[in-house]
Design goal:
Length: 307
């Protein structure tokens, strides 16, 4: 049986075999076991339509929920075990949010079959009550373990973690949000209590790995990839905790062509991935498990969303 370190080390070797949008599966043929495909987005910012084909437009013709939905449907038709996640800042950035306060964004995610999402700071731009008002349109849970919403409109409407079963594989997913003070108007996040993310992350990782016996632990993070000043980021999270396998990040709009690999406090490797902003890319990570549901190898790609 391969160690967790070998599993993650091989992931970068495997990712080098991949081209955007296409997976040479023959090069990574699994010898039995289960293949899990993880798809993810972050910081879509109400970009429901592709960028316009205007002269000088940097992202002309890219993005949009219709092309993303078509790509997701194609992948689901090809793969038996797929999970789809978002790492926050669903709202704010186009007139759709100004007019409809998040309803079309949440409805689009529900139609695309997202399995879970976490919250970003811009998801509070219509206030706590404004976010809560859109949750009846969500067919997926909002996971966040370091915000408390006691006596607010969001009390009881989010969960700290969610467990998914794909074949024999048990996947634990939890969420972390960035500190809202200084990013969100006081009245928009009134009553929200921010809990220290490293402590909550370790609590969640221990619960999911040790108590729930998950084979894979994923954090949906809106902490940001890295900073050049003292602030908790995904890199800090990876280094200062144990038990997390994969961090799917947001907030800093970082385009990664392949996951970053760092060592945690126990010397085990953690994958970090983020796919920019505005729905321009879809992240894909394939994880191959052996017949005892232990991870063997991974492959990854950051797939451009094109009309």
């Amino acid at each position: 049986m391969q160690s967790r370190r070998q599993f993650l080390t091989r992931s970068l070797q495997a990712s080098g075999l991949l081209l955007a949008g296409g997976f040479p599966l023959g090069a990574l043929a699994a010898t039995g076991g289960t293949k899990l495909t993880i798809l993810h987005t972050n910081d879509v910012h109400s970009r429901l339509e592709p960028f316009p084909n205007a002269e000088g437009e940097k992202f002309a013709g890219q993005g949009g929920v219709a092309p993303r939905a078509a790509l997701i449907d194609k992948i689901r038709s090809e793969e038996p075990h797929v999970l789809l996640f978002d790492s926050g800042d669903i709202f704010q950035g186009t007139p759709y949010f100004n007019l409809y306060k998040g309803e079309p964004e949440i409805k689009a995610m529900s139609l695309m079959g997202y399995d879970a999402a976490t919250m970003g700071n811009h998801d509070f731009d219509a206030g706590v009550a404004g976010f809560a008002a859109q949750l009846p349109h969500a067919s997926f849970p909002i996971v966040c373990s370091n915000y408390e919403f006691l006596r607010t409109a969001l009390e009881g409407k989010t969960v700290p973690y969610k467990i998914f079963r794909k074949g024999p594989v048990k996947v634990g997913v939890f969420g972390l949000g960035i500190e809202l003070r200084g990013l969100v108007a006081d009245d928009a996040c009134k009553g929200v209590q921010y809990l220290e993310p490293l402590r909550m992350a370790q609590n969640m990782a221990d619960k999911l790995r040790k108590e729930e016996k998950c084979n894979l632990v994923i954090c949906l993070s809106h902490l940001g990839y890295e900073y050049n000043f003292r602030k908790v980021s995904d890199k800090v999270l990876a280094k200062e905790t144990t038990g997390i396998d994969l961090i799917l990040g947001g907030h800093t709009h970082t385009f990664l062509d392949e996951p970053t690999v760092l060592l945690n406090k126990a010397g085990q490797e953690v994958l970090i991935n983020q796919v920019g902003w505005a729905g321009l890319r879809l992240g894909r990570i394939d994880i191959y498990f052996d017949d005892k549901a232990m991870p063997k190898s991974t492959a990854s790609a950051s797939i451009p969303i094109l009309k």
